[in-house]
Design brief:
Blueprint (H helix, E strand, L loop, with lengths): L8 H6 L1 H8 L3 H23 L18 H14 L3 H8 L3 H18 L3 H9 L5 H12 L9 E2 L6 H7 E2 L4 E4 L5
Antiparallel strand pairs: 1-3, 2-3
Length: 181
Amino acid sequence: MRRNAVFTESSLRQHPAVIKAFTGLPAEAFWDLIEKIAEQLPAYEEQRLGRAHRQRMLGGGRDFDQPLVIRVALVLTYLRLHIPQEAVAQLYGATQSDVSRELRRLLPVLQAALPCPAVWQQLAEGADLSPEQCLELEQLMDRRALIDATEQRISRPTESTKRKEHYSGKKKFHAQDPARH
């Protein structure tokens, strides 16, 4: 079922501030990312669909409901805002199933195409970089990572010290804080 979208490709092009607010990327970086993904996606899809025990022939299966720009934007919005998939779907005129499917399909390509945020900061500052800093940035670009810094619920530890360490008084449950581990 196709829904009315709050954001379309044309509205994203007209309002670059929306791209930054919802995806966390500057508009120029977002459109560059779309170009990179458009180049890398066919090879990735061929590799993904060409696995040995696939039940359908190549070309079989569900077609995409949304253009690539919207698919990438909804995945980045979900990763940045951590709102329910249904809410992201409402923003982009998709369904919750579309969001879930695009997360599985596009995440590996996004991880390969996204530069490290430290690189953007260095480039935005326009500072003269020493050879050591250039090497460090190259190494950062090779180690792409997404970090989820939300607390994760855990079972109540049996040891008293661990219980105190993992108890979140604000949320009233035991959680593992990724900042400490």
